[in-house]
Amino acid sequence: MPFPQVLSVTETSFSSVTTAHLVDMPATVDAGDLLLMLFVGETVDSATLPSGWTVEYSFSFGTSNLAYCIIKIAIGDEDGTTVDVVTNTATTACAQVFRITSWEGSLASVEQTRLENQNSNIPDPPSHSAGWGAEDTLWIAAFHAIDDDETVSAFPTSYVNGVDTITGGGTNTGGTLGSATRELNAASENPAIFTLTGSERWSAITFAIRPSSSLTEQEGFRFRNDDGSESAATFRQSQDVNDSVARNVNIRLRLLVNATGDPDSEQYQLEYKETGDAASEYRAVPLT
């Protein structure tokens, strides 16, 4: 089964104190995607969260500093919108929103373990054992830090796609979020440390995202001429033989795809490229 995929991490920073925090959503969101938001604010006790989201965790650390993780199964109309996290007092803040596909599809398949309220320059996400055992799990190492806008100088070993988001508030009014991901078939994972440019009050988290139990496999394909009905049109090639065609000539392509479960739409996409193009220049066949 494929690993869950992080298609984007959308960052929002609030460098000036405010109670309304309009957090940006990803530019593209499809129905069924997992949206996972990390949020941190300083000198705040509580927040009113956007409707339709579920709290994965919330906690205070240090002196009246607030951390949230909220999650949502996307409806599909969130593209490029904002959602408001309203804090009870005006504060600087920052957020990261993950868009994740090819996941199991229920919020119970998002698990995490936290190490809260530490003070050093090395946020250390704790070990987590996935409730489903060894599968193609997406692991996310993350931390919330508060106070001076310290930045990440090193992400955990074996983790990729590190994202470091600061409020921009500056000394004694700033905050930081850090995250990175790893695809690993394992029942448990203990990420290595983040390294910050200076000591901060932090809380670190290890997330496990379960993969989809569905699977999509292409069994075969065959090119046909556009010269008759579905039953009468002639074939251009034998099965599973590639083909090329001049511009502005219509041809047909028959595909045999096997699917188990309810595959995510992101798992399968028909693409093409022009003769002579590099392999990296494949582009999606438009729907219309």
Structure description:
The structure is a single chain. The protein is an all-beta fold. The protein has two domains: 5-209, no CATH class; 215-284, no CATH class. The chain is 0% helix and 54% strand. It is built from no helices and 19 strands. The protein has strands spanning 5-24, 34-41, 47-48, 54-61, 65-73, 82-101, 110-120, 128-129, 135-147, 152-154, 160-166, 174-186, 188-189, 195-196, 200-209, 215-225, 251-260, 271-272, 283-284. Strands 1, 2, 3, 4, 5 and 6 form a six-stranded antiparallel beta sheet that branches. It has a five-stranded antiparallel beta sheet with strand order 7-15-9-12-11, with no helix packed on it. Strand 4 (54-61) and strand 5 (65-73) form a beta hairpin. The radius of gyration is 23 Å and the shape is elongated.
Descriptive labels:
288 residues, mainly beta, 2 domains, six-stranded antiparallel sheet, five-stranded antiparallel sheet, 19 strands, 0% helix, 54% strand, elongated
Brief overview:
With 288 residues, this protein is mainly β. It has 2 domains: 5-209, no CATH class; 215-284, no CATH class.
Helix and strand layout, with pairings?
Layout: E1 5-24, E2 34-41, E3 47-48, E4 54-61, E5 65-73, E6 82-101, E7 110-120, E8 128-129, E9 135-147, E10 152-154, E11 160-166, E12 174-186, E13 188-189, E14 195-196, E15 200-209, E16 215-225, E17 251-260, E18 271-272, E19 283-284
